[in-house]
Description:
single chain, 1 helix, binds zinc ion, C2H2-type domain-containing protein
Amino acid sequence: MEPTPQNSTAHECPDCHALAADLEAHKRWHSRIVHDLAVAVEKEVERRTRTP
Ligand SMILES: [Zn+2]
């Protein structure tokens, strides 16, 4: 039996379907991760395309 969190404060994230107590903060965390990922990928692509 797994306990199902039925807290009224927990919301399911529409993006990753994780239960977040603070969906606003979770979404902010999402955009931050996505931004960091985008920057990292951009740097990696730039590094690969640039031949020394
Ligand atoms: Zn999420």
